[in-house]
Amino acid sequence: MSVLTGIARPLTTPTTAPPPSRARRHLAHWWPLAPAVAPVLLLAVPLSYGNGSTTSTNVSVADMASAFLVLFCAVRLLRRRARPLTPAAAVVLGAPAVGIAVATVTAGDPFAALPGFVRYLQIFVLIPAAVVLLLRDARDFRVVAASFVVLAVIQGGFGVYQYATRSGASYRGSDIRAVGTFGATDVMGMATVVAYGLVIATAIALRPARGAPRRLRPVAIGAAAALIVPLALSFSRGSWIATLLAGLAVVLCAGFRKASRVLPAAVALGVVLVGGFGVGTQLIQQRVSSITQVTDAPDQSVTDRYTMWAAAVRMWRAEPVTGVGLKGFPAHRDGDASLGLSSGSDTEGAGRGYQRQPLLSPHNMYLLVLSEQGLLGATVLIGSWAALLVGAVRRLVAARRSRDAAEDCGLVAAGLMIWQSVDFLYGDIGGPSTVLSGIVFGLVAWWALAGPKTSSGV
User: Quick check: 227 and 201 in contact, CB under 8 A?
Assistant: First the structure.
């Protein structure tokens, strides 16, 4: 019997599958973040390769990547049948859609307003919601934030090269303005990217994550210091002001004791980098002094900006509840602006010839929303931003008291939201870099509105 039994047994025994390698485990864990990181890194693609706003469609490769991000999250939710958002997140992120829809329907030409409807919905509703749904813990947050710094270093390095070789956008008769790969038609693009990276690097340097490698702090300090140069060479006054205030807020939020050591060192570093090395010193001084020259011989760009601000207020007074409709500012501009407004701004350099760029917005996001969406749209949209800012700061304070391991994420979120809130005083959405604003709102919303267990991952 023993012989027969032995013969009856199978010659081979089933074996279990070998455990996946470490590389495959890392890939399986991190690949879901690719849809959120891709729109950021794809902004390094130059204008000539499809990442510009010079075409009639104004669709960049980063826009297409952001559309995939939204689609990816929608399919993922349907497959898992999970609850999409918390009630608070649904209200804060979904409320702007009401004002956007009303402003589209009540516009003089609703069909002409449809592109504005899609753009506002993309930046302020869909992308932020997708980012909130995609992030699983603080580690995911840090990966997406780190991609901003990588992009800032790439764009900033190219911007410094443009200044050194006089191959940038035209500024006061010389092709020295650092614009990165965004070109002369989007002079704010590189400044926005570099400012985001500078704020994030500063926050990481002040409060690195627990258990992070020791080299992280010096790398973050080096990145923040290096990004000061391209930001200065962008000659963007609004970005300077927003970065200065956001950086100051981040330092103070990190602790007064630390602020007493960091602020003097930061001032000295700025003097050495900009003044000591002579990086555009005279031009930067002239640019800074022009901020306050409103009545005493202001330059034409300052005159145009304040003239358009006044025109936006007049539009709102004419239609106080619903505004003149999305994309309505250009059509009403000439009728409400004074004679001091020029027909457009001159752009040249960075690989392109002379071009007259029309002034299609007031370069103030708050006034643009007020003029085109009225009190209804301004209340829900600006109210949503205010809720994100208050929520981010409140949760950061709570994280500091409880010694939350994700305090570094809170510092990044608060800094980014403060920067965006200040920058909207001097700029608005437009150009390929606008996609980053949607991802920023998503990062801030995840920190401010996600459940308490979501941010505790280290």
Answer: yes
Boundary (domain end) residue, out of 259, 291, 323 = 291
Instruction: Give pLDDT tens digits along the chain (458 positions).
Output: 444 444 444 545 555 556 666 666 667 677 889 999 999 999 998 876 656 544 445 678 889 999 999 999 999 888 877 667 888 999 999 999 999 999 999 888 888 899 999 999 999 999 999 999 999 889 999 999 999 999 999 999 999 999 999 988 888 778 889 999 998 888 889 999 999 999 999 999 998 887 778 899 999 999 999 999 999 899 888 899 999 999 999 988 887 677 667 777 777 766 665 555 455 566 666 666 665 555 555 566 777 788 889 889 999 999 999 999 998 888 888 777 676 676 666 677 666 666 677 777 888 999 999 999 999 999 999 999 999 999 999 999 988 888 777 889 999 999 999 999 999 998 888 888 899 999 999 999 999 997 545 444 55
**Domain termination site, one of 270, 291, 312:** 291
Q: How far apart are CA 36 and CA 147, in angstroms?
A: 10
Shortest CA distance to 389 belongs to which of 362, 366, 418? 418
Which residue reads 């009545």 in tokens?
295
Give how far Cα 424 sits from Cα of 171, 362, 399, 427, 452, Å: 23, 11, 28, 5, 30
List the domain range (segments joined by +) for residue 109: 58-134+300-342+358-458
Identify whether 36 is part of a domain. Answer: no
Is 440 found in the same domain as 314?
yes
